[in-house]
Amino acid sequence: MFNKKFSLSFSQYVFLIYKTQIGVGVLTLPHDLFVISGSDGWIAIIIGWMISTIVSFLIINTLEKNPDETLFDLLPRYFGKWLGKIILVCWILYALFAASYSFMYTVYLIKVWVLPNTNPVLIGLLFIIPIYQITRLGLPMISRYAEFTFLITIWMYPIILITAQEGIWLNLMPIARDGFLPILKSTPVTALSFLGFEMAFVLYPRLQNKKKAFKGILLANTMTAIVLIMVTVLSYIRLSETELAFAVWPTLDLIKLVHFPFLERLEIIFISAYIIILFMSVIPYLHMALIGSSNLFQRSIKKPLLPVILTIWVGGLFFPIIGFQPVISIKKMLSTSGLIFAFLFPVVFWIYSKVFLAICKKGQVKG
Amino acid sequence: METFQQQEDKKNSDELLYTDLQVNLEQLQKRVSNGPDLIVRSFQTKGKENVSLVYYSSLVDKVSVNDHLLRPLMYQLDNTSELLGPNLSIPIGKVTKVFDWNDIEKAIFQGQSVLFIDQTSHALIFCTQGWPQRGIQEPQNESSLKGGHQGFVETLEINLALIRRYVSDDNLVIKEHSIGDRAESKILILYIDDVVNPVFVQEITARIQKVNKDAVLDLGELEEMIEDNPYTIFPQFLISERPDSVASNLLQGRVVLLMDHSPNALVAPMTLTAFFQSQDDYSSRWIVATFLRLLRLLSFFISMSLPALYISIISFHYELIPLDLMLSVGESRSKVPFPPILEAILMEIAIEMLREAGLRLPNPIGQTVGVVGGIVIGEAAVQAGIVSNIMVIVVSVTAIAGFIIPNYDMSNAVRLVRFPMMIISSLFGIVGLSVGLMVLFAHLISLKSLGVPFSSSFAPIHLSDWKDNFIRTPLKAMKKRPFSLKAQQSRRQGKED
User: Fold this and answer.
1) What is the pLDDT of residues A50-81, one digit of tens each?
2) Mind telling me which residue stretches traverse the membrane in this protein (chain A) (predicted)?
3) CB proximity A155 to B under 8 Å
4) Are A126 and B435 in contact (CB < 8 Å)?
5) Residue B318 C-alpha, separation from nearest chain A C-alpha, in angstroms
6) Which residue in A1, A7, A13, A259 has the most chain B C-beta atoms within 10 A of its own C-beta, making it the best mutation to test that interface?
7) Rounded distance, CA A328 to CA A312, Å?
8) How far is it, in rounded angstroms, from Cα B419 to Cα B352?
9) For all residues of chain B together, what is the average pLDDT?
10) Predicted confidence (pLDDT) at residue B83 exceeds the cutoff of 80
11) Number of H helices, E strands in chain A
12) For B336, left (φ over 0), alpha (ψ -120 to 50), or beta?
């Protein structure tokens, strides 16, 4: 608090990862899973949860050796100056890509569901205000905002749960009707929804109590998995098969079913409030990209870089990249790059670091 | 060329008193403005010493000067040196011996009396202050039903006394500072030594010492000069006129500033949620107090966003509300020629004007303003088709919600936030409202009060503080001081674990 280097509390760490994970994926996941594995999609989430937890464990395990350094500090040391820099640039691009996609997605979502007659550029202009305001102030602000986001959106869980009332649970039966192959096939689809735990690569050094690092990431993953399973199962028991097969946003269709005597079209309010959650996945990735580039140039370039990125985002909205087809195809790209960076890279990095450290030790003994 | 040291010596010798009484008095005329209320009383004491007593008749207590100073000097005292001796023979509490003109000037302007004595190089200063003061009254801005009814007044000593009556702890530390080059004002920093986080004391002392202004007339002015962010509309320190609430804040581990001639106390550091507490909460039933706190929280949101919500529903998402309600809204709006945003701003401005007008007027006229405004806006404007019925209801509910917030500064801040909210939601509908609230809360979260996160207890979350924030649990459960204050002694009830 007082001029000390800011350190993350446990709850901030958990909420930051959890809120990064909950974002774009939740809205479409039931549909994406249904297309591949039918009503068994929710089992794929459990497998996805296990895989992300294992990968998270590897991330923490790798970082434990150097508790005060982020991934970006480690890269040049482990991979040498040039290769390290190349990987660093890839990471920056990945984080920037994830942030940009979430941003574009938010604009598109609002455009489709709430403000069909408003120019997307204007919506983009509106959205960069809070994003700039929060990202500018760095991690202390972002982590506090993540906690606030959790508190202010807590009402969404009961709203979603209300829909269970008239659900037909038999829709889930029989379990694994086509065998386990489709379930395994659909597991990579869940990756997109779990993306966010790789944030630990930059958060871990700032965490106050490092012993709880894995516990925190496990908690975040589990919370995410619960939300995903909840949404998926509820969609399967409430929505018809045709709906699930063709509607892109089953989660929102689900909320559409909720009616109050004083309120119709609840989903409009829901989506308007949901943008705060979507921003909470834009902002951490943006932050990650910014500190990555500060590492790249060896000095803080957040101040000039942040407005440039935001201007490019708004400028990008002049082009017709906001549309159904681009959103779907870019999502596939993000999903693939997420698999590479968040799932594959940590495993490779973990093995590499073990080997690297072993060689170093040997070298030291010899020398 | 004189060296710096020589200049300093010369300056110092200029500042010192002369031994000759006449020279001293001439010097005095030069230094102190010779207003009609400056009294220079020259006489011989009983011991045949030539002395002059100087004071401002407007600033001294005449009884004490005449009876307790002049009478003993003229008729009883043999020697002026006795005044400082152990057998102090005049009934005045504080007597000081000075050699320096600066001290003398300051003393005279503060309402003390100065005695110049012939053939000595010192003067004596007697504490004889007495100035016009107001009696202790019920606090105007923060009246309470159950708590004490004494409010601060414009005299520092009395305010200090009021606080001391609540906090009779020997660990209550009072430090004196003064600011203002031209018109000096005394400032007291109060804190409880073994409770407060020492960082707060250091920080606020440093900030006060940095103030460099010719005069600081009120605590509100000082607040702006020492707060963390002067560019926000949200108050970061509490300005209170209630000794009991100040005492309670002291005991929680906060620092309190008192300033001479300001009928307020400044409390730092504050958090957002602390602005929704009122001293009455602790003396009423806890269930009722909890209800009131939640009501305040609700009214905080209503007051900021109800007109904005109404505008966004009417102009963008009329499908949100059920058909029957929609029809009645439509009917009431059918005669109104303006778009909702214009209608809302018209009404809001009218009500703000009414409020300001009523505030500055004496009570009987103020009531007239209320009646005229109520009838004109409530009845005539609707009948004339300028505003709709529903809008009148929305605006009135909003105004009433604004009054529920117990702190005046906070309520004003919320009052102003309403306008940008209305504008943004007239442009983007409910998305605008939600982004507006995001920006607002991001701003609140970014604020700090004396280095403490202003949004403490909800961002960062401290669940233990919630017991006394959004709700008021039974006093038995509130065993700890607020976490955000990081007090040295965190437990205030029961044993330290």
Assistant:
1) 999 999 999 999 888 888 888 888 888 888 88
2) 12-29, 41-61, 82-104, 110-132, 144-163, 183-204, 216-237, 268-293, 305-328, 334-352
3) no
4) yes
5) 10
6) A1
7) 21
8) 12
9) 87
10) no
11) 17, 0
12) beta
* Per-residue pLDDT, A2: 40
> Per-residue pLDDT for B1 more than 60?
no
Lowest pLDDT segment from A135-144, A201-210, A314-323, B291-300: A314-323
- The H or E element containing residue A90 is helix A81-113
Residue A135: list chain B partners with CB under 8 A. Answer: none
- Cβ separation of B435 and A275 shorter than 8 Å? yes
| Residue A141: closest C-alpha in chain B | B446
Give CA B298 to chain center in angstroms: 26
Chains A & B: contacts with CB separation below 8 Å: 101
Q: Cβ of B435 and A12 within 8 Å?
A: no
A237-241 contacts: CB < 8 A, separation 24 or more?
A237/A164, A237/A167, A237/A168, A237/A169, A237/A171, A237/A172, A238/A163, A238/A164, A238/A166, A238/A167, A238/A168, A239/A30, A241/A34
Task: State yes or no: pLDDT of B12 exceeds 70.
Answer: no
On chain A, the residues whose CB falls within 8 A of the CB of B199 are 2
Residue B359 token pair: 């505030």
Separation of alpha carbons B457 and B459, rounded Å: 6
Spatial CA neighbour of A69 closest among A197, A203, A211: A203
Lowest mean pLDDT among A272-281, B19-28, B166-175: B19-28
- Judged by a CB distance cut-off of 8 A, whether residue B206 touches chain A is no
Q: What is the pLDDT of residues A104-134, one digit of tens each?
A: 999 999 998 998 888 999 999 999 999 999 9
How many other C-beta atoms can be found within 10 angstroms of the C-beta atom of residue A152?
19
Of A271, A145, A246, the residue nearest B438 (C-alpha): A145
Residue A4: is its pLDDT beyond 60? no
CB distance A121 to A318 below 8 Å:
yes
Interface of A with B in 101-130 (CB under 8 A): 110, 114-115, 118, 122-123, 126-127, 129-130
Residue A74 corresponds to which tokens in the numbers above?
A: 């480690």
Which run of H or of E encompasses B188? strand B185-192
Token reading at B169: 């702890």
Pairwise CB contact (< 8 Å): A275 & B428: no
pLDDT of B317 reads 87
Give φ, ψ of B315 to 5 degrees. -95, -20
Sign of the C-alpha dihedral, residues A223, A226, A227, A229? Answer: positive
ipTM over 0.90: yes
First to last CA, chain A: 44
Of B307, B317, B290, B289, the C-alpha closest to B347 is: B307
Would strands B95-98 and B50-56 be described as parallel, antiparallel, or unpaired?
Answer: unpaired
Average pLDDT over residues B211-235: 91
Q: What's the Cα-to-Cα distance from B29 to each of A11, B33, B253, B406, rounded to whole Å?
A: 69, 7, 48, 51
Other CB atoms within 10 Å distance of the CB of residue B269: 28
Q: Does A147 touch chain B (CB under 8 A)?
A: yes
| CATH fourth-level superfamily of A24-348 | Amino acid/polyamine transporter I (1.20.1740.10)
* CA–CA distance, B117 with A29 (Å, rounded to integer): 94
Cβ atoms of B187 and B257 closer than 8 Å = yes
Per-residue pLDDT averaged across A264-276, rounded?
Answer: 89
What is the DSSP code string of B143-168?
--SSS------S-HHHHHHHHHHH--
pLDDT at A3: 40
Q: Could you read off the pLDDT of B333-350 as tens digits, one per residue?
A: 888 888 999 999 988 998
| Mean pLDDT on B303-320 | 91
When pLDDT is cut at 50, 70 and 90, the band that residue B6 belongs to is low
